[in-house]
Design a protein that fits this description.
Largest sheet: 4 strands, mixed
Strand content: 5-15%
Structural class: alpha+beta
Amino acid sequence: IIAKCKKNFTNLTGKITLQFVYDYECPYCHHLYQALQQVLDRKKQIKLKLYPVAVINKTSLIAATAAIVTTHYPHAFIQYTNTLMLHSPMSDQEIWQVLNSMGLNNPAFLQDMHSLWVKNQLLEGLTLLHQYHVKSVPLLIISNDHGKSIVFIGEKTPAELQQAIQNIRKESQIS
């Protein structure tokens, strides 16, 4: 199942940074991802950093490592992430079917899933969880270029996200 929604809402520029630590097997992360899409469609000037982690089960590890490897293929990460996050959490078999349908289940891709650079990327998300003393996902950090931040743990509505972004934006203008 490839997601029909192919919009890429990642952005590498902006005065506001949004860091999202999530697990592909977490239903709360799925809800927050969908809420982020609604908010970020209107807010193009937000820098978005996505950190897939594996904290729930073995399927989480397969999904997260595959996601990290997809970053080396043009447009594959957002297609893969939208496919997994806009549906209910998937089984191992369903994840492999998604990768097969994207043409990504090849020996080089599988080898990369076990590489050191993928492990290091997984550690970045886990480090953020540890830094904020959080043991579960989702974790969302909204910050400005002046060092002010708002931290959300758990599911939030688009309205709550919109309000937090407005508050951080006001802090940027005051500082």
